[in-house]
Amino acid sequence: MTKAEIHSNSYINREISWLQFNARVLQEASDERVPLIERLRFLGIFSNNLDEFFKVRYATVKRIVDAGKGGKSELGGIKANELLEIITQIVIKQQSESLEVLDAIHKRLEDENIFVIDENQIDSSQHDFIKKYFIQKVSPALVTIILNDLVVLPNLKDSAAYLAVRMVMEDNKKQFALIEIPKTINRFVELPKQGDKSFIIMIDDLLRHCLGYIFNIFDFKTVSAHMIKITRDGELDFESDLSKSFIEKISDSVKHRQIGDPVRFVYDKTIDKETLQFLMSKMGIDDTDSIIPGGRYHNRRDYMGFPSLGRTDLLYKKIEALPIKGLSLETSIFKAIDKKDYLLHAPYQTFSYIVKFLREAALDPQVKTLKITIYRLAQISHIASSLINAAINGKSVTVSIELQARFDEQANIDYAQQMQQEGVTLVFGVKGLKVHSKMCVIEREEGKKLKRYGFVSTGNFNESTAKIYTDYTLFTADQRILKDVNKIFSFFETNYKIFRYKHLITSPHYTKKAIFKLIDAEIQNVKNGGEGLIRLKMNSISSYNMVDKLYEASNAGVKIQMIIRGLCCLIPGVQNMSENIEVISIVDKFLEHTRVYIFGNNGSPKVYISSADWMTRNIENRVEVSCPIYDDDIKQEIIDTFNICWSDNVKARLLNVSQQNEYKIDNNEPVRSQFATYDYYLKKLEN
């Protein structure tokens, strides 16, 4: 791939940049410093990320090609059909690397007396166990499709893994079949230990071993099975049926996703050519789809659930989420917040404070109203049960729930229906805009007045992800901020009105203008002979408008430090364009999810936490909130933790024009920022 293909003068193509982010995830799988079973799980994350990329981004580019458009202006200077080819080549290379990583991990597992065996390595005692396991657990869950030229191939499920079976009969005729690998059964079957040796067989190989039982009615000479997987377009297409509720339309569209157009076909490269051609012709795979020759196993996302086998020495040491100094889970959270603001930094500090806030609101007789935005709920959500509890106790509860949270729609639909049945008022955002802001406000009767308490966050109110995503949540009784939060809920209900906000920066109406004003102030500081400083931490930056503004600031002499976990269309360190911009990316044990904007402001920093990345969708097509930090102690805490991340020289990669993900190396003492951040909060408690 040439430099011109990566970017067109000023921008790195977002799809290519995203693939380089996923390469950083693959680096974690290959990193000897990462515990062995965690390396397998990173391999699963890499694979899962790739599945979602093809469902969404590749599918979007393919739609541009199918519509007969070039797409050059939208895609950073690359034609859509050329980009599809570049993506496929990058993915083939990454898939090949991931197979090498997997082989290396398997060898290391054997050093630890953990053996992942296939159907050719089964001994007699294991055979008896497998036969019994197959008959009792696997066979009842099996879906086997017998194919021949007269049968139309049924729609294969999106991202499900199948074994493509080829039988050569006694008369030399061929019979094809598909076995859907059941998702209801763990992909990894633990076999009985032999001494200190642990054995695992993948369900794929267990099925290969049992092909004779599955197809015992056929008179075959030989039988073979190879893995295939199809990925479908993941966009939601809505019906215009006016008789259906919004929940029904979303639900139907989620189901329809399973039969969307194919965009990627992955197959075992050792598959018989006759079988491959038969399947591709039946499935209607064409040359605009990404056809990826792979290894023996697909759906490697399942490695995210690789069993621990009781080997805690091969896992990251679990950290105990810390309390927040001065904030108790045993006394009233409202009384504490009334006196000062508090900051929760998950997963270093416990998410229980958010649940405690909502539980207290549900029980407190003086609380009259509760309003919250929901983007991604956990499968078992204490947040949802607290909101239902509040409604049962007579509070006026309003929930703005985003039913189009990508790939979490079904969980949100289920909870939305439960909440609706219990009297919670549901607001389904604003037409044409996703509600991605994370905020809550309650009104509590105190004397003859209503006082507001609430929180604003960078992350989802989700107990599961709070254990692995880094996020900030500000608890506050600052009436200035909460008055603005309340206005946003008014906007949900009367969105023909555009409200003005004195303190919050909100999308879609004000983010670009407000951020530009803050950047312009730093440019002016330099012009006045002072220092200009901008420090940003976010998941992604792809808005060309925002990139261009940062280039302008760089050319004016403003120093810019950026920590970008995911895709970055900005090219740092280029003479006369971005020479004052440095960008790093941290991929480690936790998923970096905090979004922070810090503006130097001549030594009196302005600090914001935000739900918004600097992507066009976040700035123009979503409801997002950036919240100012007014408490000096919290402001310093955010700056401190940014400094720790910026000092990382163990897990930080340099994002630059080469796109090679080189590790940041300096002569300082090793700093692994996620571990150092935990120590920072530990010392805060000790002091």
Automatic annotation (TrEMBL):
One of this protein's GO BP terms? Answer: polyphosphate biosynthetic process
User: So what does this thing catalyse?
Assistant: [phosphate](n) + ATP = [phosphate](n+1) + ADP
Q: Does the keyword ATP-binding apply?
A: yes
- The main enzyme category here is transferase
Name of protein:
Polyphosphate kinase
Which stretches make up the Polyphosphate kinase middle domain? 126-306
Name of encoding gene: ppk
How would you describe the post-translational modification of this protein?
Answer: An intermediate of this reaction is the autophosphorylated ppk in which a phosphate is covalently linked to a histidine residue through a N-P bond.
Record keyword Kinase present: yes
What keyword terms does UniProt attach to this protein? Answer: ATP-binding, Kinase, Magnesium, Metal-binding, Nucleotide-binding, Phosphoprotein, Transferase
Q: Residue limits of the Polyphosphate kinase N-terminal domain? A: 11-116
Q: Which cofactor does it need?
A: Mg(2+)
